[in-house]
Specification:
It is a single chain. The chain is of the alpha+beta class and 167 residues long. The chain has a single domain, classed as Gcn5-related N-acetyltransferase (GNAT) (Aminopeptidase). The protein has helices at 16-29, 32-35, 47-62, 112-126, 141-149; strands spanning 2-3, 9-13, 70-76, 79-88, 96-103, 131-137, 153-157, 160-166. The chain has an 8-stranded mixed sheet, with helices on both faces. Strand 7 (153-157) and strand 8 form a beta hairpin. Helix 1 (16-29) packs across helix 3. The protein binds coenzyme A. Coenzyme A (COA) is lined by residues 34, 101-103, 108-114, 136, 140-143, 145-146, 149.
Length: 167
């Protein structure tokens, strides 16, 4: 998938080759807590955390026996920049899809997330979804702004923010 903007933004479905590039981008340009579930142990991109990152994506996207979502490598002007995902919430033919995006630090705040969100919305509609949902936290101003910019309703409860958009 290609998004229109000043940058060339290309979303490529994850496979082993793009997963390796995604890990490189994460290690170079993001904190583990921004891009993967918490893992006990010393901070930073330890060998264990890198392996857990790979296992996380293999389980959720690549292994046909366990996959629950589609993940794309986001490339910006040919460089691996982050990941986007769409997860049907109640099974493969769900009307509701949950979206997620992360970008490396050097790519944030330049309108790229907005373009990626548009591409994800289009993919959700093309896939037959009727509702687009996403979650973030109240302290994540960029994600909240990104989500409200799609026209989604934002529901704040405690530290959590749930976004919901009828497609
Ligand atoms: C959240 C994230 C995907 C947003 O992508 P981005 O490319 O940085 O966002 P954009 O530049 O497209 O900006 C989207 C909107 O947020 C605003 N924004 C961007 N960075 C902001 C910041 N630090 N504080 C406040 N608003 C911000 C922009 O002005 C824009 O609003 P507008 O359309 O009203 O002008 C990106 O910042 C990121 O990957 N963060 C770390 C991981 C993460 O938090 N992922 C989301 C978890 S739910």
């Amino acid at each position: 998938m290609t998004g229109l903007s000043d940058f060339e933004i290309v979303l490529t479905p994850l496979d082993e080759a793009t997963l390796a590039r995604l890990l490189e981008a994460a290690v170079a340009d993001a904190e583990p807590h921004e891009v993967m579930p918490p893992l006990d142990g010393p901070p930073g991109w330890t060998p264990e955390r890198r392996e857990a990152f790979l296992a996380f994506h293999r389980r959720r996207s690549l292994d046909p026996d366990t996959a629950i979502e589609t993940t794309w490598l986001i490339e910006v002007d040919g460089r691996a920049a982050g990941a986007a995902r769409l997860q049907p919430v109640h099974g493969a033919s769900a009307v509701e899809v949950e979206a997620g995006v992360w970008l490396g630090r050097s790519c944030r705040g330049r309108g790229i997330g907005k373009r990626v969100a548009e591409v994800l919305l289009e993919a959700a509609r093309d896939g037959g979804a009727a509702r687009f949902i996403a979650s973030t936290t109240v302290d994540n101003a960029a994600a909240r702004r990104l989500l409200s910019g799609t026209g989604a309703d934002l529901d704040v409860h405690g530290e959590e923010v749930d976004a919901r958009l009828e497609l």
